[in-house]
Design a protein that fits this description.
Layout lengths: L24 H16 L4 E3 L9 E4 L12 E11 L3 E8 L2 E11 L1 E7 L5 E7 H14 L10 H20 L1
Antiparallel strand pairs: 1-2, 2-3, 3-6, 4-5, 6-7
Bound molecules: nickel (II) ion.
Nickel (II) ion binds next to helix 2.
């Protein structure tokens, strides 16, 4: 089932999310719904707070090549356990901040630990777009958005655009 994606500014996007204690069927369903919502958007990542659920859960799939098999990842309680000193700059966007893009500098390579859909502990090294995406999504679980990396003026400009967009949507 597709869920509604919250648009910034929203207090739920600024909250620190709670770790998932028990992997219930309800949480698995939530993760599946998030993947469906993400693919439909379309986007390469989605965090639970973006649909108003304040649990530490993210989904992502950064496969971009046409014809390449999709690789949906579901991560409960994801944690960055190591980051490279080398950095990478990507033009980031966010499904909660539609049609706004800006360059963000982040570690190029990260080691991430998480619990998968079956409740198994996983660990993997991510590079390039995958590394950027997983860091962006984990930020969401700590109430942080990519625009928080920008200079205040640019951030305020984007926030004002989003407020206007929300007013227009509410009127429609
Ligand atoms: Ni985002």
């Amino acid at each position: 089932m597709k869920r509604t994606i919250l648009i910034h500014p929203d207090p739920r996007l600024k909250k620190v999310c709670a770790p998932v204690a028990d992997l219930t069927d309800e949480l698995r369903k939530l993760a599946d719904d998030m993947l469906e919502t993400m693919y439909d958007a379309p986007g390469v990542g989605l965090a639970a707070p973006q649909i108003g659920v304040l649990d530490r859960l993210i989904v992502l799939d950064c496969v971009k090549e046409e014809g390449e098999a999709p690789r949906p990842l579901i991560m409960f309680n994801p944690e960055i356990i190591a980051s490279s000193d080398e950095t990478n700059v990507y033009e980031e966007g966010c499904l909660s901040i539609p049609e706004q893009y800006a360059e963000v500098t982040r570690p190029k390579v990260v080691d991430v630990a998480w619990i998968d859909r079956d409740g198994n502990a996983q660990q993997e090294t991510f590079d390039g777009l995958w590394a950027t995406c997983v860091q962006h999504e984990i930020d969401h679980l700590n109430g942080k958005l990519f625009i928080d990396y920008l200079k205040p003026l640019k951030r305020q400009m984007i926030t004002r655009k989003m407020q206007k967009l929300k007013r227009e949507k509410a009127r429609a």
